[in-house]
Structure formats: structure tokens, C-alpha cells
Amino acid sequence: MVRQIKQKPMNWTERLYVFEACRGMWVTLKHALRGLLRYETLPTVPYPEIKPEIRHTYRSKHRLMLRPDGTPRCVACGMCAAACPADCIYIEAGEVKDGRIEKRAIRFDIDHLVCVFCGLCVEACPVDALRMDTCDTSYVYRNREAFITPMSELMRWDPKDYPQNDIQSQMAPGGTKNKQALEAWGLEVKKC
Amino acid sequence: MLALIYFSILSVIAVGSALCVLLSRHPLYGALSLVVSMVSLAGIYGLLGSPFVGVVQIMVYAGAIMMLLTIVIMVLNGARDSKTPMFDRVSLFVFPSVILLALLLGFALISTPLAFSPETWRGSVALTSATLFNTDANGPGYFLLFEAIGLLLLSAMIAAVLLAKKNLGSKESEETKEVQ
Amino acid sequence: MMEIIQSKHWVEWLITISKFAFAFVPVLFILLLIPLERRGAGFIQDRQGPNRSYFKIPYFGRIRFFGWVQDACDGIKLFFKEVYAPSGVNKLIFAIAPAIPFAIVLISPCVIPWFAPMIFTMGDQVIRISGQTVDTEVGVLLLFGLSSLSAYGAVLAGWASKSKYSLLGGLRASAMTISYEVCLGLSLMGMLLLVGSFRIDAIIAWQEANVWGIVAQPVAFFCFLIAMIAETGRAPFDVAEGEPELVAGFHTEYGAMQFGLFYMGEYSHIGINSILVACLFLGGYSVPFVTTETIQANIGVSLAVLCGVFVIAILAFLHLLYRYSRWYKTSAASNKAVILREYSLYKILGWAAIVVLSAGAVVSALFFHPEFTIIDGQAVYGIGAALGTALIHILVLLAKAVFFCWIWIWVRWTLPRFRYDHVMNLGWKVILNIALVNLVVTAIIAKILGGR
């Protein structure tokens, strides 16, 4: 549908420019006085000293979700690597002894220099093993190799940094729901 | 004493830059030296007790007219670094006339000595306006000349506008109107 | 030579010579204008503006002076960059051009009256010192003449750079200067007609005796202000250096301190123009509703009031400071401690200044009653009263000028740039005609009322 925006023709005060200019000056004066007298209400913040609040829905650095026993949830299916438009995920699958899952990842590298932070890997993951809600937006290293984040790095996160209603995160070791999850999980294991 | 010092400084600058106007090969250098000459001439006017004339000299000649001249030199091809010859056939006529004029002025100056003292106001603003706009019936009547010159300048300006807008009704000028 | 020196009292010589220091006032305005412009622009755009540059002192740590240190940073950066000229430029004119506007700004303030003529007794002599550095009767005209010369800087820089952008910028600058010079002169003519003199101190004396120029000639004030802004070549009239069209206009090819001279020339031009507008239309050094005679007669109380004004300003500043520090204490800033330590210095200085100023106010109000002698039916005071009056006058003039400086910045960061033909239309077809009509109307009214 084509939306037609009707522009009103300017009336004579508007065409004189002077009065409209004064109106604009009044607006900028208000903003200037706000900056001077209500400095703390400025929408910009002095960045490194005061960090802006980043929501968990913001696509930032990846993390690998953990089972209650601390092993990664990843089943090395390779869906994320297949979905990745930038080809930045490298997965090497390995054998699993305990029989709960078929495969596990023994290498899971994400090259954060190549990553475009599109979030397709998170969407693709069938077991909710990969998330991008660390709120970690600035990470700086000296060389290119350091930006290739290994699995150990991706698994290093603290459940305390995540909200209580994020049950999947709280089930990880150290989380509030970890004990319950382990119990439930243990029962399941026994049944098998 | 002080006036003499100032006068000698200003006159050396004025004469030197006037010589530069004659001798410089680059038209823009010539124009700039003319500006310097005019500014120092304005200083001499001020020294002679008529600061009004001096300031008008700066405003009108150095400020406006020479600015326009500079623009013309810059925009037209004169300001390419083409070296114009220092002497040509015209200078055969110019140099003798300059020397003749200098002799004439020197003779005039020697015969009527000029006294430099800032106290004597020759061309103060009040004096100038009182003389210029003296509307008495038996006054000098300069104001009539002033008005006549104003009319003359106005007609000259209108003529210049008409010459510049020769093709007033042509297609091009209509297009520019639309843009505006 | 000796007669000239002996013709005046040594105090007169001292004051006369120290008046030359006023030549640097527009240059000092740069120091004020750079932070005012950059932080003011920031606030207008809801940013914070540059506030990071600091220097360190022993106990209080990083002193930032609310972004004031940025002056030094800008200056040092420009000063230590390599002076560089592209190949093919006209070396001589390229080097001279940036100096022209700056040199003219140094000459211009000579005709500005900074205080009412000082008349005081020194021993048995009566000394009269005028407020201008150069006491000439063509005051305003000289200023206009000099500022019309300053366009040469832009023109020559544009030509000598051998760059098309520069040349176009220079041409535009000169065309703008010439056309708005006319508007400037004509819009002022109404005021000059009322006063009947070109002297700026006469204009101020007239305003002191009657009403301020902004009341007597509001239309002229408006035209004058617009023409002034256009003549400085700042937004919204900065077509000479319009970034989208001409890169940076006439100073495209300049770098380092050569660019810095243009930059400083522009800012000090704003300074001198604000002072001029304050002089011509806002009563200059005259304090509103109080005559110079009243100030001189009650010099002690006047100085006390001056101190009081300063105390109120400092109290407002301290109030802001305490608000900020309260906010910083509760905020999540990681540099809280540093900032609070820095603020403690300002608090100490502010309270100390308040104590000193209040004490000074009380002392001067109670004990400063100068004696006077009646000369020609006028009370003439000693040197103390004269200097105190001059101080009040200078500060009042500077306060008015700073207000106009803010208008310059405010307009620049509010209004979008005009197109070049619009600027020319505005100059020649609108403002010039308004100024002409204003002149004629003023002349008629002055003839009817004053009969002069």
C-alpha cells in the first residue's frame, strides 16, 4: 500500500522563517539548559566509567549451556555450524561413554573476528546448548588467534549473572536450581 | 616629531608598495601591493587630521573595490602564473607621465609647505558633514552635487544591470527563476 | 620627546599604556569560546561534550575544569603539528593569508570603549583618560573598515591553495563579506542618526542617557545581528566553508597552526563582534538603570554589589556542584572517587572565594567612601573610585559580550545552513531593504521628535 503523506502548505508565519527559527532556538535552549542544570539526565553516559545496561536478549558473546553436572549440553550435531552464514563455528565430535547422549563436542571453537552476531546458531540449536546472552560486548585481545574462543572459554560463565527465571541457566553448577536438577536427573538415570 | 616619524614610515610603505604595483609581474601581487599602498595612504590621511577620509579610503577602496578587483583577477585567467612582461609599448607613455606628475607634485609641495600636526582638524566628521550638507541659500551648495552624483551612480547601476541582463526574456533566465 | 612624556602624569601614562592590553581581549575570548562552543553544542545535542582532558595536581588528582582543559589540548595539538603546504601552492600568499584575519582582530579592539572616561584627581592635577585605546572620532567606521579587510585572508587563502574547493570558498567568503558589510553599515545608520556621532563612547553615552539601542532600534538590532553573524561566516551562513559542498572551503589545504590561525581568527572575530553589538545596542559598559555618576558617588556600595553578584554566581555554581556530587555518589560510575576528589577542590575554592568576596563587600560598603572635589560643577573623585568604576564597567561590558557569544553558538547549533543563493537573496533583497526602510523611518521620526 502506498501511503501518501500530505504536506500542509506553509502559512505566512512559517514562510517568514524568523518565528520558526525562534521556535527552534527555544527548543535547543531547553536542551542546552537541561545539559547544564540536569546533567545527570543526559541520555548519553560517560562510557567506560558508567556502562549502559544491556539486556539478555541482546546478541552478544556466545556461551555454551551446561548440564547439571557441568558438562556442555552440546550434542555435536553440527546444526549451528551449518546454519552459520559466516562459517565461524568449528565443531569436532567425540565419543560419549555414559550413553545419555550419542555424541559430545570435544572441540567447539567460535572465531569472534568472523562472527557476524546474527544469532542463527542459537536458533538452529536443537538442544538449547548455545546462547548469546552474556551481555559481553567488548573483548579485546592482542592477536587474531586469541579471538578464536575455545569451548572452555565458552563454558566459563556464572549462573549468578543470570536472572532467576532463567531456569536453564540456573540448573548449571552453582545455580539455584542445580540441586533440584541433579536430583531429578539422577532419578532419570536410575530408571534407565 | 612623532608625526614626522609616522609620516616617514607610512610614506616609505606607500611609495614602496606603489613601486611594487608597477614592477610586479604577477597581477595579484600588483593588486595586493595596491591594497597595502592604500592602507598606508589612509594612515597618512589620518595623520593629516582627516581620519574620516582615511577610514573611507580603507572601507571603500581597500575593502570593497580592491576586493572586487582581486576576485576578478582570481577568477579570470589573469591569475595564472603567466608572467606579464614588465615593459611594453604602453610603458613608453606611462613612465614619462609618472615622472612628469611627480615633478609637478613636488613643485606644488615645495611652493606651499604642509605642516603636520594632528591638532589641526581638516576633515573631521562634523566638519565634513557641515560643509557637505550646508543647505543655506548662500552656502556652497555641495549637497546638490552630492544628490546629482547619487542620481548618476543610480543610473549607472541600472544601466549595468540592464547590460548584464541582456537576454532578460530568454529561456535560460526563466529556468534560473524556476530554480529559485 | 621629553615634553610629550612630561606633559602627562605618570599614572596617566601607566593607564594609557596598559590600555593596550585590551587588544588581547578578543583573543582571550577564544579561551572562553572553545569550551562554550564544544560543550554547548554537546548539551544542545543531548551529548556531554569533551570532558576528558585533564591535568594532574598533587592532592586533588585529575583536574578537568568541566572541559576547560580542552583549550590547552586543542592549542597544543595544533601547535605541534607539522606546518605543511601542498605542492603547487603560491608559497608566499599561502603563508601570509592566515595571519591577515588574526592580525586585524588584534587591531580592531582599539576603538572599543571599555569604560566611561575616567576623570580623577591626582595630587593637584585633574586627569582624564578615555575608555578607548585610540580616541578617534571615526570609531565604528574604523572597525567596519578593518573587518572588511579581514576578508582578504579568506580570499587569498582560497586562491593560493591552488584547489578548486578553496577557490570557491574564498570567492563565496568575499562575496558574503562585501554584501553583508553593506547591510551592517546601513542597519547601524539609524542608530548613528539618533546619536549623531561615529564615536562608540558617544553612542554608549546616548544609550545611558536615553534608552538602550535595542529598545530604540529593534529592527536595526535584528538586521545588525544577522549581518554580523553572516559577516563572521558562521552557521547558518557558513556557505564559504560548507562541508557538503566545499570540503572545508578556503582552509581546505591548511593544517597545523596555519589552520589554527583561521580558527582563532574566527573565534576572536566572534568575540570582537559580540563586544561591538553589546556596545552599540545593549548599552556597552553602562549598568542598566544606574548612571556612571551614581556608581562613582557610591563606589563602595557598587563594589559591594559587584561582589554580591559574584557570590550569588559562585553559590549557584556550588549548588550545581553539590547536586552533581550527590548524583555521582549514588551512581555506578567507576571513577566516582576521582571525580569527587576533583570536585572537592572546586568546593574549597568556591567557599574560599565566597568568604573573601563577602568580606570584601562588607569592607568596601562600610569603609570605602572616597572624597571628592567639585570641578566645573562636577564631583571629581580620586584614583580609587575611578579605577573601581572602570572595573565595574569592564565586567559589565564583558558580561554582555559573553551573552552575545552564546547567541552566536546557539544560532550555529540550531539553524541549518542556508543555500548560497538564499544567503545572497537574504542579504540583498531582504535585510538591505529592511535596513533602508528602518533608516528612512528613523530619520522621519527623529526629524519630527528632535527636529535635528
Mind explaining what this structure looks like?
The complex is a heterotrimer of chains A (192), B (180) and C (452). With 192 residues, chain A is of the alpha+beta class. Chain A has helices at residues 12-16, 18-37, 79-83, 120-124, 151-155, 167-170, 178-191; strands at residues 63-64, 89-95, 103-111, 130-131, 148-149. In chain A, the strands form two sheets. In chain A, strands 2-3-5 form a three-stranded antiparallel beta sheet. In chain A, strands 1-4 form a two-stranded antiparallel ribbon. Chain A is elongated, with a radius of gyration of 26 Å. The N and C termini of chain A lie far apart (59 Å). The mean pLDDT of chain A is 84. Chain C has 452 residues and is mainly alpha-helical. Chain C has one domain (2-49, 81-286, 370-449). Chain C has helices at residues 2-6, 10-18, 25-44, 70-80, 91-96, 99-107, 139-149, 151-160, 164-195, 200-209, 213-216, 218-232, 243-246, 256-281, 292-297, 299-330, 336-367, 383-412, 420-449, and strands at residues 55-57, 61-63, 118-122, 125-129, 372-375, 378-381. The model of chain C has no long low-confidence stretch (mean pLDDT 85). Chains in contact: A-C, B-C. Chains B and C meet through α2 and α3 of B and α7, α8 and α9 of C.
